Amino acid sequence: MSMERICVFVCGVLLLMSTASVGWEQKHDYKLALSTSLLFFEGQRSGKLPPNQRLTWRKDSALRDGQEGGVDLTGGYYDAGDNVKYSFPMAFTATMLAWSIIEFGDGMAMGNEWINAAEALRWNTDFLLKATAHLPNTVYAMVGNPNSDHICWERPEDMETPRPVYAVNTAHPGSEVAGEIAAALAAASIAFKTYDAAYSQRLLSKAKQAYYFANTYQGSYNDSIGYAVCPFYCDFSGYHDELAWGGAWLNKATNSKKYQNHVDTAIRKMKLMQEEGTNYIDTEFSWDNKHAGTYVLLSQIGQYEKEAQTFACAVLPESPTRTVKYTPARQTITCGNTQFPPWKLVEFAKNQADYILGTNPLGMSYMVGYGPKFPQHVHHRAASLPSVNAHPSFIACGDGFSYLNRPNPNMNELTGAIVGGPNSGTDNFADDRRQSAQTEPTTYVNAPFVGVFAYFVNHKK
């Protein structure tokens, strides 16, 4: 199972168990894991860095982003080990950070990490507000040319590649990216509600506009700007899941059922896709596929509980019907003719989290900077090249490949990065930065684990 699948399964499980009081013996230092995981987002920052930047080997970058489109698109996050910014997975990262804060903020407070989590979220939502600055007609979906970027191995501080702007609009829609942005801003409005009421209201107002755009002008950004986003972040699951997901988050943020008809309509279309045999997987949850996450969220208010339970039965190793969804906390999970207590789900989540932190055959932590043994050759341009501190002079586009191919450890520690992990079906891991599937981190993998680690900070035996 890939690290992305593990992380969203584990987070989905714990989100359904968020009210369950279950204690466990601590195999790992989850406070340290939580604080370490949040540092990663500082390594992914784009734009003008703040004075309290802790990963000081990173410097300002991409300060003219958006100029080609006549808009300010500085800031936000680089999604992985390259230097392109994609609004779709970035928005999912924000949604998961916000959900982690909403559900597991108590564990963050115990670890003194609530502020760091909130700052990681705000760095993201500030960019999403810029990406939606030209609503009601336009949403900015991407900055940078991935093909030009990928022929370079270059620090973001040195970027000389084109930084075109790609947008969806009323004539060329992108319901998945706009719907995910709506979900992110709505979820973040809840996370910030008692911390910064004015900012929370601003986020919620923009979330409503983004959702109106997504739902009124329906269509996939694959058809509108697929030449730019594909094959990197094509939407494979359709956009109705984002319409359901965004509507569900708006209902939660407004404490109402104003968007319920939109949610139900989108879910009916999702299920119709399943009947037609198209790309509908009811038991997955990722930056692309929101099916399981939507059902988990809705099950918290007593809706779509059957679909949520399908998810739970999918992840439990002992289940006769392995799928991927979840039932509300404190209820027995029925999988076929077998029933499981809620703590079984938390046990599964903990085992998976512990595996990532080093309880595995290699004794390898797959989070950089945690434990005595962790990846040293992360597939990441900025981490693998010398920092501006160590090498102030410019490093050109092609000159960095000597660092990609060298056997030495990375020049800089990308603390907190959760890498792709071992090969599918085995526990083998190649600590080789040229093996991107195993050694490249992403923001949308780290984001759910912020909540996972915070949960276990707050639940001890």
Automatic annotation (TrEMBL):
E.C. number: 3.2.1.4
Hydrolase listed as a keyword: yes
Residue span(s) of domain Glycoside hydrolase family: 30-452
A family per Pfam: Glyco_hydro_9
Signal peptide: 1-23
Keyword annotations from UniProtKB, A to Z: Carbohydrate metabolism, Cellulose degradation, Glycosidase, Hydrolase, Polysaccharide degradation, Signal
Top-level class of the enzyme under EC nomenclature: hydrolase
GO molecular function: cellulase activity
GO biological process, one term: cellulose catabolic process
Keyword Cell membrane found: no
InterPro entries according to UniProt: 6-hairpin_glycosidase_sf (IPR008928), 6hp_glycosidase-like_sf (IPR012341), Glyco_hydro_9 (IPR001701), Glyco_hydro_9_His_AS (IPR018221)
Reaction catalysis annotation: Endohydrolysis of (1->4)-beta-D-glucosidic linkages in cellulose, lichenin and cereal beta-D-glucans
Family according to the record: Belongs to the glycosyl hydrolase 9 (cellulase E) family.
Name of the featured protein: Endoglucanase
